[in-house]
C-alpha cells in the first residue's frame, strides 16, 4: 500500500529505504518517484532524468520560500541539469545538488535531521547501491 493516499503524505520525514522502484518512509512504502518538501511528501511523475523540467518541479517552486537546498536524485546516472532549471532555482535562492538517487537520499536524511530547509526530488530506482 502506498503511503501517499491521494498522492500526498502530510509532513516531511526521513527516508528509511529506497529501491525496488520506490521508497520506504513513516513505516509505509511508496512505488514511484517522490518529492520531499516542507509541506509534505508527494508522488512525482518523473521517471528519468531527461523528463526533469521546470513544469515537473513546479511544486518545488511553489514552496521555494521554505527551501534553501534541493537535492535531485537522478536515478542511477548523473547528468547535467538544464541551465534554465538551475537559473530558475537560483532566482528563488535555492541551491541544487544533483546526484544519483542513493546519494540524494542519504544527504536529504542528514540535512533533515539537522533541521535544515531541505527538499528532495527523487527518481525511483530498482536497485539500491
TrEMBL record:
Gene3D superfamilies linked to this entry: MTH938-like
Superkingdom in the source lineage: Bacteria
One Pfam family it belongs to: DUF498
Entries under InterPro entries matching the protein: MTH938-like_sf, NDUFAF3/AAMDC
Signal peptide, first to last residue: none
Protein name per its UniProtKB record: Mth938-like domain-containing protein
Amino acid at each position: 500500500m502506498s503511503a501517499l493516499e491521494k498522492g500526498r503524505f502530510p509532513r516531511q520525514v526521513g527516508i528509511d529505504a529506497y529501491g525496488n522502484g520506490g521508497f520506504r518512509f513513516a513505516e509505509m512504502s511508496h512505488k514511484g518517484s517522490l518529492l520531499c518538501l516542507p509541506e509534505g511528501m508527494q508522488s512525482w511523475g518523473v521517471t528519468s532524468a531527461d523528463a526533469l523540467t521546470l513544469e515537473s518541479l513546479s511544486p518545488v517552486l511553489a514552496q521555494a520560500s521554505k527551501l534553501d537546498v534541493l537535492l535531485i536524485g537522478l536515478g542511477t546516472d548523473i547528468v547535467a541539469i538544464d541551465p534554465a532549471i538551475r537559473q530558475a532555482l537560483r532566482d528563488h535562492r535555492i541551491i541544487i545538488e544533483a546526484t544519483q538517487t542513493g546519494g540524494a537520499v542519504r544527504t536529504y536524511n542528514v540535512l533533515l535531521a539537522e533541521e535544515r530547509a531541505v527538499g528532495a526530488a527523487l527518481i525511483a530506482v530498482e536497485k539500491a547501491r
